[in-house]
Amino acid sequence: MIDLRSDTVTQPSPAMREAMASAPVGDDVYGEDPTVNRLEAMAAQLLGKEAALFVPSGVMGNQLCIRLHTRPGDEVIVESTAHVIRYEGGSASSLSGVQLCCVLGTRGILSPEAVKAAIRPRDIHQPPTTLLCLEQTHNCGGGTIYPLPTIQALTEVAREHGMATHLDGARLFNAVVATGISAADYARHFDTVSFCLSKGLGAPVGSVIVSDRERIAKLRRLRKMFGGGMRQVGIMAAAGIYALEHNIDRLREDHEHAKRLAHLLADVPTVRIDPDAVHTNILLFHLTNTSRSTNEWIAACRNAGVLLNAVGDYTFRAVTHLDITADMIEKAGQILKQVFTSGPSNPSQA
Ligand SMILES: *Cc1c(COP(=O)(O)O)cnc(C)c1O
What we know:
Blueprint: E1 2-3, H1 14-21, H2 34-46, E2 51-55, H3 58-69, E3 75-79, H4 83-86, H5 91-96, E4 99-103, H6 112-118, E5 129-135, H7 148-160, E6 164-168, H8 172-179, H9 183-187, E7 192-196, E8 207-211, H10 213-225, H11 234-246, H12 251-266, E9 271-272, E10 282-287, H13 294-304, E11 306-307, E12 309-312, E13 315-319, H14 326-342
Parallel strand pairs: 1-11, 3-4, 3-5, 5-6, 6-7
Antiparallel strand pairs: 2-8, 7-8, 9-10, 10-13, 12-13
Helix pairs in contact: 1-11, 2-11, 3-10, 12-14, 13-14
Pyridoxal-5'-phosphate binds next to helix 3.
């Protein structure tokens, strides 16, 4: 089975497991886990911030930062297909009491004009707009890279209006590898940044938030409040350290694989895809001229040996990652071509 559903499906390698098994640990709620402390110091340095906080998931990383930057009744500006609105279970409204203002972007990328227009005047009738949250790379945009000048302009608009800024950098290192711009150069524009260790970097668990010392201290308390205080979690942090040391540069292979798959799919008459729009390890493609449902197509692909996700009607997502080889991409291309051109005409066969 060639699993292209997500870059979260990776298995920890033997060497990563070794690093986990031999990690020195302590009680991290007391701040006494040397491996967690090492990971946090490493992450802070890599992103050019004063301090860092290891958290159990990317969702918790985003939600702790939303809580930190807002008060109940505030409004947060996000792009309309952001992870924060689509895939975090409504947690911003339930855990922080904020409402999300969805601004339409282009492949997930917001324009400074659109954001400026969405910021509400200070008026007792209206919710205060207190936070701008961006996503790098943009998942539902198709792994799109936020250009640095756009980030600069957007965060400047936010600051001019007294708003805080957060980057959901779940796949920040994919952007770093693709552009050659350092993580610190992206991070310097934001008050808080979170990134995932458990996506393309290949660790089994965890995300890291970076910020200044004062905000990280507040986030540490909020993490406890949200139930995310962990004990001898250096076992997990060791996997994160291993991932940062070994798995960043190789993300470029994932990008090459996604591009190659995009070119293979572009040859299929019923598939709509623009290989030039594939920036990183995520590719979106659209199926035309079909009477079968999206789920029937997903099942047909699964039966033929390829796992995909759908992100909308007839829009499919394939994600490359460190357990996908160049050979698997060629094979997946063949399989998908066959399914989409000749696939069983009777849906019940799916
Ligand atoms: C995966 C992801 C997250 C975090 O998800 P978790 O499953 O909680 O780790 C956050 N933002 C984006 C854009 C993501 O793709």
